[in-house]
């Protein structure tokens, strides 16, 4: 959907499986390229890979990950949500890098800005490329709570005899 120069939001909800990372990265990078945003597609691809990897690693085992975007004439916002980890994300500096922590440092160096916040049942991590989005938070994030209500990210209690894998829900712009 394109409204007033905005495209999106677009989103997909997948299993928190590292094997889904390439598909998610290619899907978002392709959307950004089609919109013609003046951003470096390699930077976007790397940020998506890092944020998705962090969600898989630090989100609850057996959960799902929402990956999405919002695009405008001068930039792009990448959004990745998981069912919530034990601590808020932070950029790691110095000796702490030996045990991981490079992902957000990479995002911090590539993106115009990034941040995170909690919604019921989800940790939201986002980053802007190009010109940062200049919109009231109530407008920029209005789409996310209804999506998360319809597509919870925390692991569900297994139903007797059920087995679901891979893409669990797909919605939004393509």
Describe what you observe in this structure.
This protein is α+β, with helices and mostly antiparallel strands. The protein has a single domain, classed as 2-Layer Sandwich (Heat Shock Protein 90), CATH 3.30.565. Helices cover 30% and strands 29% of the residues. It is built from five helices and seven strands. Strands 1, 2, 3, 4, 5, 6 and 7 form a seven-stranded antiparallel beta sheet that branches. It is globular. It starts with a strand and ends with a strand. The C terminus is likely disordered.
Question: What are the main properties of this structure?
Answer:
about 170 residues; alpha+beta; seven-stranded antiparallel β-sheet
Q: What is this structure's SSE topology?
A:
Layout: E1 2-3, E2 6-15, H1 21-35, H2 41-58, E3 64-72, E4 75-82, H3 102-110, E5 113-119, E6 122-130, H4 137-140, H5 144-150, E7 167-172
Antiparallel strand pairs: 1-2, 2-3, 2-7, 3-4, 4-6, 5-6
Helix pairs in contact: 1-2, 2-3
């Amino acid at each position: 959907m394109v409204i007033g120069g905005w495209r999106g939001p677009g989103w997909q909800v997948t299993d928190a499986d590292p094997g889904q990372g390439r598909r998610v990265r290619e899907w978002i990078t392709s959307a950004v390229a089609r919109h013609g945003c003046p951003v470096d597609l390699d930077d976007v691809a790397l940020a998506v890979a890092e944020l998705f990897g962090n969600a898989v690693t630090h989100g609850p085992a057996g959960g799902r990950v929402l990956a999405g975007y919002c695009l405008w004439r001068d930039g792009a916002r990448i959004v990745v949500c998981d069912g919530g980890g034990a601590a808020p994300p932070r950029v790691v500096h110095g000796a702490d890098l030996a045990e991981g922590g490079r992902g957000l440092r990479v995002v911090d160096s590539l993106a115009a800005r990034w941040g995170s916040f909690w919604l019921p049942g989800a940790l939201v991590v986002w980053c802007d490329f190009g010109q940062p989005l200049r919109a009231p938070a109530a407008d920029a994030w209005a789409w996310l709570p209804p999506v998360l209500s319809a597509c919870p990210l925390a692991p569900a209690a297994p139903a007797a005899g059920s087995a679901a894998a891979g893409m669990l829900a797909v919605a939004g712009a393509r």
